[in-house]
Amino acid sequence: MKKINSGIYGLNALLDGGINENSTTVVIGMSGAGKTTFATQFIRRGLESGQEGIFVSLDENKEQIIKEAIEMGWSEILNYIEEDKLVFIDASGMEFSQFIKKELPDFVSSWKGANARIAVDPLTPVIWSTPDRYEQRDLIGFMLKETRKVGTVLCTLEEHGTIGDLSGTETVIPMYLSDSVIHLRSSFEAGSKLERRLKIIKCRSSGHSEMEHPYSIIKGFGLVVRAGDYPLVATRDKVDQFASDFKILEGNVPNYVFKRLQASLKDLRDRDLADINTKELLNAILAEYEE
Ligand SMILES: Nc1ncnc2c1ncn2[C@@H]1O[C@H](COP(=O)(O)OP(=O)(O)OP(=O)(O)O)[C@@H](O)[C@H]1O
Ligand SMILES: [Mg+2]
Hints:
The chain is an alpha/beta fold.
């Protein structure tokens, strides 16, 4: 799986190297969590490495997004727009099913190449455009499929209601349909100051941190994520010990199973086994194949 740098300082290490190229990521958060800032950073990082950027806005107009980006300390945005490296699609006020089924595919088929970064901010109005859940799923699925043709996709999603309850239809459908889900959670813990926490809910075909990570939004830097207790240096001490104990399986489980499992050990790091009692696991494997 080829990884690309997210543009969010501190995040790549938590995603086993970055965002999967040509995948779709959904960033969920309540108002003010930093979704638009995240999307802007993601696009900006692509522009820095020569990728083109497409910003699809479904409710804020282009001028507003540019203004916010400049206030965030990113005035080069104007140069990228002038050079046509950054393209805005302002779909605010449009009829979304028409936009997704007609204008978007037209845009995609006229786009050359498949190496851009495309951000849709926010995806929520598409869900609201129809009460029919099947149609919502169809529209979102179609939109993700089309946008993926031009490169790596990032969609933001508004979180409403109880913070952290991601089970509402407006979050569930995009979460199922996308490859990765990142939750930006901001709340006032016990009436004190604003606490911001980032959590990777899923990342298909990749390992990732399963912890909550504090993050800040800093002018000029944007979202900055802290690793906290997550081990940034990937050690293999426990894995090496496991690999040594593993030999007990040889001759006691089918040989092809032994070879397959043994081959997978080389990709493991200690953090993968952090919650595992390796002796118990070996016994479970032995029991599985006991005649
Ligand atoms: N120029 C800035 N300097 C410092 N902090 C900023 C700046 N701009 C934004 N922020 C911080 O980022 C937060 C808003 O970020 P952003 O607009 O990305 O959130 P959002 O999740 O897109 O919100 P919404 O759902 O309302 O669109 C602000 O509440 C503020 O805390
Ligand atoms: Mg926003």
